[in-house]
Amino acid sequence: MLVVTVTLVVVVIVQSAQCKTGSCNLSLQKDLSQNEPLVLTVVQDNLEWIMPEVRNNQGVISLETGKHLVIACPGSKNNVKANGEETAYVKCDRGSLKIGSKRVTEGGLRCTHSIADSEIWISQLSCGSGIYKGTMIQLGYQVMKEWLPLVEVCHNISRGVTLYTYHPLAGHSIEGAVKSNQRGNFKIGPTELFPGISPNTLYTQKRQKEVFKKILGSSSYLNGSNFLAKGHLSPDADFIFNS
């Protein structure tokens, strides 16, 4: 009986070591920090966002041997460096990441260009109610003919007013999020979202003074250090990946 017990313990230890050495780990901060791609998984033939684990305050995507990830670099003339295509199926093979039979070298999973700009999909669905009623719009990415939403926006088109935004918060991964100052320039959406309105001029300090004077009778409240600034309804810090 004693011999059987010792044998079982040895077997468990060996199997555990094989599992650990056969997995592949991707660090958001070290492996994907420059020109970061979209990192996706396939669930029942559908693409879904993958969220990292947190290890030592860093985001880590762990992949068991034999499992796959989908790396995507959407956008004009944008490709995965390792294969020169917009997408790549990446497999973990006993501790090594491979695309097909070729091992992925350092930096190979990065995109040739930044993909910081998302796309806009205007639905036929309504949101809100009364004067606060709007059209549901989604910000996201088109990958392999699949639409991957990031943020839902309730926007009143006739008034040119955004009422609210909604996005899931991956609280278990926030501590391992990529922290970056990289941010694209202010980008106006399709003109049909702001009929007869120019968002570029609405937020200038000159325009603010005109509105304050019209409503309050004075624009003295505004000066070089006191003014209204554009902000995010969906905070940048709520998202895990830089893209």
How is this structure best described in words?
15% of the residues lie in helices and 33% in strands. It has helices at 2-22, 199-202, 205-216; strands at residues 24-27, 38-43, 46-49, 53-55, 58-63, 68-72, 87-93, 96-99, 102-103, 119-129, 132-143, 146-156, 161-166. It has three helices and 13 strands, in the order H-E-E-E-E-E-E-E-E-E-E-E-E-E-H-H. It has a six-stranded antiparallel β-sheet, with no helix packed on it. It has a four-stranded antiparallel β-sheet with strand order 10-11-12-13, with no helix packed on it. The radius of gyration is 24 Å and the shape is elongated. It has 243 residues and is of the alpha+beta class. A hairpin with a 2-residue loop joins strand 8 (96-99) and strand 9. The protein has three domains: 24-103, no CATH class; 117-170, no CATH class; 198-235, no CATH class. Residues 150-242 form the DNA/RNA non-specific endonuclease/pyrophosphatase/phosphodiesterase domain. One of its GO terms (molecular function) is nucleic acid binding.
Our count of helices gives 3
Distance between the termini: 58 Å
**Structural class by SSE content:** alpha+beta
Q: Main sheet? A: 6 strands, antiparallel
Please tell me how large the radius of gyration is: 24 Å
Shape label = elongated
Low-confidence segments:
1-20
* Proportion of residues in extended strands: 25-35%
Order of helices and strands: HEEEEEEEEEEEEEHH
Number of E strands? 13
Strand order of the largest sheet: 3-2-6-7-8-9
* Residue-averaged pLDDT: 83
Number of structural domains = 3
Query: How helix-rich are the residues, as a percent range?
Result: 10-25%
